[in-house]
Amino acid sequence: MRALSNEADVEHMMWDAGVTVVYAQELSFEEQRTLFAGARMVIPPHGAGLANLVLAQPAQRVVEVFPVGWFNDCYARLSRNLGIDYEYVVASPAGEGGGVVPLDRFDLLLKEASCTDY
């Protein structure tokens, strides 16, 4: 997925909500397995790395981020089959990159997931 124009804003919102930001592609398979096995919430961009959801059995929620013009429900179906609550956000077109994540919707999903206001 191409970088989002407001990726830094998205990451700051996650940090403010107490969500650890990790780049799984920089981890070994063993590190990814350990990371997903302990995850309570997973907020990834759409991509093959979401196959790791099969390792995220304690996870309660997935919030998938789609780039502009792309939607595929394969990980929604996987999440639901694993009993994980699934939500998604679709980026809006904007300049270069994969678009802009609608921060109001993203903020709402983070608050619902954490059940706290931050």
What is the structure about, briefly put?
This protein is α/β, with parallel strands linked by helices.
List the strand order in the largest sheet. 1-2-3
Unreliable stretches (pLDDT < 50, length at least 5) are none
Radius of gyration: 14 Å
For the report, how would you describe the main beta sheet? 3 strands, parallel
C-alpha termini separation: 29 Å
Number of domains: 1
Please, could you describe this protein's structure?
The protein is an alpha/beta fold and 118 residues long. Helices cover 33% and strands 12% of the residues. It has one domain: Rossmann fold, CATH 3.40.50. It has helices at residues 7-16, 29-37, 74-81, 103-114, and strands spanning 41-42, 61-66, 85-90. Strands 1-2-3 form a three-stranded parallel sheet, sandwiched between helices. Helix 1 packs parallel to helix 4. The mean pLDDT is 86.
Question: Layout of helices and strands, plus pairs?
Answer:
Blueprint: H1 7-16, H2 29-37, E1 41-42, E2 61-66, H3 74-81, E3 85-90, H4 103-114
Parallel strand pairs: 1-2, 2-3
Keywords:
alpha/beta, Rossmann fold, 3-stranded parallel β-sheet, 3 strands
